Amino acid sequence: KQEVTQIPAALSVPEGENLVLNCSFTDSAIYNLQWFRQDPGKGLTSLLLIQSSQREQTSGRLNASLDKSSGRSTLYIAASQPGDSATYLCAVKAGTYKYIFGTGTRLKVLA
Amino acid sequence: EAGVTQFPSHSVIEKGQTVTLRCDPISGHDNLYWYRRVMGKEIKFLLHFVKESKQDESGMPNNRFLAERTGGTYSTLKVQPAELEDSGVYFCASSRPGGSGNEQFFGPGTRLTVL
């Protein structure tokens, strides 16, 4: 059974810091992995989608890597800003069409 | 292109009442999914439609939940009768036909509160 874990559960950093969010999954047979952002009371915003054949994806200040063999993905945020404060969710698609989500990392960037 | 839309955005009902949530997927997306997040837990899969057919409903919690997608367009999720533990945020997502590597696009969710 696929399980997705995100560490840390919460993170508070000063503005300008580079930071790394971690996601691990137990079954390496995945189709893709997607990182989302969720603001309080809002829906899910897709940040980056990494297909199983890819090692990383980049968008602006965000970089996501995927290591299937070790069951890990990291989301790197460069030069963090207060507007980056949100919950970041990792989800893997494994075996069927459904996503398995982690519990998320709550990020707070202090001005 | 319009995104996935959900209605209502919020619903507050009393235990025992019925609520129907609606999801309109992105036009042309054959695949439609329902997920939910209950307080303190991760987002969990409920079911998957391909056009009007239920492909996987393994995540539906019990028979108080009924999902339909008549005509393969919008979908409804009915909870009858609602219980306190049904409170949470219900998300709908859609994806293009074809490969399982396709990205799922999520709607803003419906926040359901059962009192």
Explain the overall architecture.
- The complex is a heterodimer of chains A (111) and B (115).
- With 111 residues, chain A is an all-beta fold.
- Chain A has strands spanning 4-7, 10-14, 19-25, 32-38, 44-51, 56-59, 62-67, 72-77, 86-93, 99-101, 105-110.
- In chain A, a hairpin with a 5-residue loop joins β4 (32-38) and β5 (44-51).
- Chain A is globular, with a radius of gyration of 13 Å.
- Chain B is mostly beta strands and 115 residues long.
- Chain B is 0% helix and 48% strand.
- Chain B is globular.
- The model of chain B has no long low-confidence stretch (mean pLDDT 93).
- At the A-B interface, β4, β5, β9 and β10 of A face β4, β5, β9 and β10 of B.
Greatest contact pair?
A-B, 25 and 26 residues
Total beta strands of chain A:
11
Please count the beta strands of chain B (DSSP E, at least 2 residues each): 11
The largest pleated sheet of chain A is described as: 6 strands, mixed
Keywords:
heterodimer; A: 111 residues; mainly beta; B: 115 residues; four-stranded antiparallel β-sheet
Give the gist of this structure.
The complex is a heterodimer of chains A (111) and B (115). Chain A has 111 residues and is mainly β.
Q: Helices, strands, pairings?
A:
The complex is a heterodimer of chains A (111) and B (115).
Chain A (H helix, E strand, L loop, with lengths): L3 E4 L2 E5 L4 E7 L6 E7 L5 E8 L4 E4 L2 E6 L4 E6 L8 E8 L5 E3 L3 E6 L1
Chain B lengths: L4 E3 L2 E4 L5 E6 L6 E7 L6 E7 L2 E4 L8 E4 L6 E5 L8 E8 L9 E2 L3 E5 L1
Parallel strand pairs in B: 2-11
Antiparallel strand pairs in B: 1-3, 3-8, 4-5, 4-9, 5-6, 7-8, 9-10, 9-11
